[in-house]
Amino acid sequence: MENENLSYDKALARIEEIVNKLEAGEEGIDQLSEMVKEAAKLVSFCKNKLRMTEDEIKQAFEE
């Protein structure tokens, strides 16, 4: 996961992909931990992106 090339949409799509794999039981227990860690990082990235966007929108309306 490269944050400098990562967009909100790509991160969200990857989270959905991970969730689908976990729900389908497609991955073994060895991959489970890594996938959960990756998903947690992606969720954090998306939350931060949303906060930054919200702040930018607020700033734009204050000007």
UniProtKB/TrEMBL annotation:
Keywords: Coiled coil, Cytoplasm, Exonuclease, Hydrolase, Nuclease. InterPro entries: Exonuc_VII_S, Exonuc_VII_ssu_sf. Residues 15-63 form a coiled coil. Its EC number is 3.1.11.6. It is an enzyme of class 3 (hydrolase). Belongs to the XseB family. This is Exodeoxyribonuclease VII small subunit.
